[in-house]
Amino acid sequence: MMTRRFSTLAACLLLSATALTSPSFAQNDAGKAVYDKVCVACHSAGIAGAPKFGDAKDWEPRIKTGMNALYESALKGKAPAMPAKGGATDLPDADIKAAVDYMVAAAKGGAKPAAAAAPQAAPAAAAAPAPAPQANPAALNFNRLLKPASKRNPPPPEDGIHDPENDGTHALQPPLTVFQSLPRSNAGNRVDWVKALDTNQIGPRWDRTDPTAAPVVMDLNIVREVKGSMPDVVYPHKQHTAWLDCSNCHPQIFIPQKGANQISMAAILLGQKCGVCHGKVAFPVSECRICHSKKKNVMPVKNAQAN
Amino acid sequence: MSLRHAWIRQRRALLSALLPVALAGALVATGDARAEYADVVINNYSDAAGMRPVIFPHWFHRIRFRCKVCHADLGFQFKAGGNEINMVKIIDGQFCGACHNGDIAWSVENCNLCHSAKPGTPTQVHESTIQKLAIQPQAGGQK
């Protein structure tokens, strides 16, 4: 995957380089390169009223307005959905114009008899407001504020915080190469780390140097009754002591005494108490029911300590 | 350089080809970070020293070590940027240097494997609740 990225990158750089050095040869190639990267998103299928690539009927009325008008629309954008430079505002004007040339050439190449195109001209113009409902399908997307699957666990060069200019970034392991074989969860890294450890799919060391050292796991559940209708919290020492030392939590974060710790969701959200880890590295607070897991009893509430 | 940047942004735009171009354009403009949950950016001194900030990937390390090894045995505080780590301490075998010594893990000559963040990225735990609550991290490199 990384090598593919590199080769496409190299090809892309090469293309741009040839475009700079020999404009006559590369004019159409540069146009195609820009089209393939930017314009294709809408113009290949004719999304949101965009004139479809190679479709003479779509393009003819627009070509009639003159190339300058077309360049203008491409560079500055056009209602309802064409953004300035197709959204790639960092590209030079010449590249955008080359892409327009490329699309116009393709439309002319696939030109149909004028008789067929002429009656279409009027409907095409009238159609401009018609696709308005499709103009912004993102507004209709289900769960539009959630991170779509395509954006989860990206490789380091694409993750937005690693510098793709840095050679070391490309040597780092992409998370999905490991995550694909681990049990999935719905939040955080989207890996169920506790299950991965339980099922021996991962074997993290308990000691820095000794691979045979094993934790002393304490199997003790603490039940915390909570106000309101949320189920009570069951805190399992077992899963925590498999990863952590007692001293990580006691006595600094939690006083090891029943009733001595005031815990609220507000504190957790602000990174205190459970929030020292949950919401930073352990599963996040969106997963309410992993902690709030004990149904409230109509019977008199049991002792706070199970087992 | 700008060409490579431009290409990466366009690639992103392509990935979101289902979105209309208008929205894709907005995405291209904002450069949204979507790194792994719990990736820690440490920029206590890096920017000021002319190095890229450090990114510590929790996911990678928790596959190999339990939390206790670093957070109890090696003394890492549970706070991004809360450990006064510098290269002298690391070479001296403290903090990262307890393992990144050419013995347990690769050694300090691989600067760019850790110092890999975009320059100017502030100290933060990526995707943390606090980050999402929009308590914006401050620019780093001045500690």
SSE layout:
The complex is a heterodimer of chains A (307) and B (143).
Chain A: H1 2-21, H2 23-43, H3 56-64, H4 67-76, H5 93-109, H6 114-127, H7 132-135, H8 176-179, H9 193-198, E1 221-224, E2 232-236, H10 237-243, H11 246-249, H12 265-269, H13 288-291, E3 292-294
Antiparallel strand pairs in A: 1-2, 2-3
Chain B: H1 2-15, H2 21-30, E1 39-42, E2 54-57, H3 58-64, H4 67-73, H5 87-91, H6 111-114, E3 124-125, H7 129-132
Antiparallel strand pairs in B: 1-2, 1-3
How does this structure look, described?
The complex is a heterodimer of chains A (307) and B (143). Chain A is mainly alpha-helical. Chain A has 3 domains: 2-140, Cytochrome Bc1 Complex, Chain D, domain 2, CATH 1.10.760.10; 147-176, no CATH class; 182-307, Alpha-Beta Complex (Cytochrome C3). Chain A has helices spanning 2-21, 23-43, 56-64, 67-76, 93-109, 114-127, 132-135, 176-179, 193-198, 237-243, 246-249, 265-269, 288-291; strands spanning 221-224, 232-236, 292-294. In chain A, a hairpin with a 7-residue loop joins strand 1 (221-224) and strand 2. In chain A, helix 1 (2-21) packs across helix 2, helix 3 (56-64) packs across helix 6 and helix 4 packs across helix 5 (93-109). The two termini of chain A are 50 Å apart. The relative contact order of chain A is 0.07. With 143 residues, chain B is mainly α. Chain B folds into 2 domains: 1-32, no CATH class; 39-132, Cytochrome C3 (Alpha-Beta Complex). Helices cover 36% and strands 7% of the residues of chain B. Chain B has 7 helices and 3 strands, in the order ααββααααβα. In chain B, strands 2-1-3 form a 3-stranded antiparallel β-sheet. In chain B, helix 1 crosses helix 2 (21-30). The longest helix of chain B has 14 residues, at 2-15. In chain B, 39% of the residues are buried. Residues 13-31 of chain B have low confidence and may be disordered. The interface between A and B is large, with 83 and 78 residues.
